[in-house]
Amino acid sequence: MTTTKGLRERKKLGTRWALSDAALALALERGLENVTREDIANRAGVSLRTFNNYFAGKYEAVAFRQIDRTRQSLAVFRERPAGEPLWSAITEAMLAPLEAEGVADVRPTPEELLVLRDLLAVRDLRAALTKDLFADWVQAIAERTGTDPVRDMYPRLVAAVVRAVGETAMEAYANADPPVAYTELLRRGLAEVAAGLPER
């Protein structure tokens, strides 16, 4: 039976997604530098106060969808079979949210790529994307590999590599010509890491 708390949390998550979608749509229309918090709140049909309750600024709002996907990936990673090779588990976990949303094979338009390149150049947006969940990934990797998240370098190295592959795949995605699906680049990057980054 669904609890009142569970319904409340789902409603909050829905509001966050609505604000993030509004922020991204407006950024695509006019560039994020020309978008205000008030614009985002109006597009999402909520008050500015509601926006401020959920996000510190427009960069966090745009970044939320990727942060939430990372959170979902972490949950999937924790549920992967214990005997599955580590990098296979990480790959499937990273791809799962995109596949669930039905956007795994989506290729961006040239206009969307222009906006994406502008967004990736913004330091505040990069900070919003990278500040959350790293410690949680370290903990999850340590649990899976039987290592200590504080004393052993291994779980932190793996988590750092996962983050680096995600960022590198996003950079390649934003600059691809012709456009390619982000999942294709993400899968390729993780496969290269799993193979030990062989020389070319």
Automatic annotation (TrEMBL):
Q: Which residue ranges hold the DNA-binding region? A: 36-55
Q: Which GO terms describe its molecular function?
A: DNA-binding transcription factor activity; transcription cis-regulatory region binding
Task: Enumerate the Gene3D superfamilies for this protein.
Answer: Homeodomain-like, Tetracycline Repressor, domain 2
Q: Which residues cross the membrane?
A: none
- What InterPro entries does the record point to? Homeodomain-like_sf, HTH-type_TetR-like_transc_reg, HTH_TetR, MftR_C
Q: Which UniProt keywords apply?
A: DNA-binding, Transcription, Transcription regulation
Keyword DNA-binding listed? The answer is yes
- Pfam families in the cross-refs: TetR_C_14, TetR_N
* Keyword set includes Nucleotide-binding: no
Q: Where is the HTH tetR-type domain?
A: 13-73
From what superkingdom does this record's organism come? Bacteria
Name recorded for this polypeptide: Transcriptional regulator, TetR family
The upper taxonomy is: Bacteria, Bacillati, Actinomycetota, Actinomycetes, Mycobacteriales
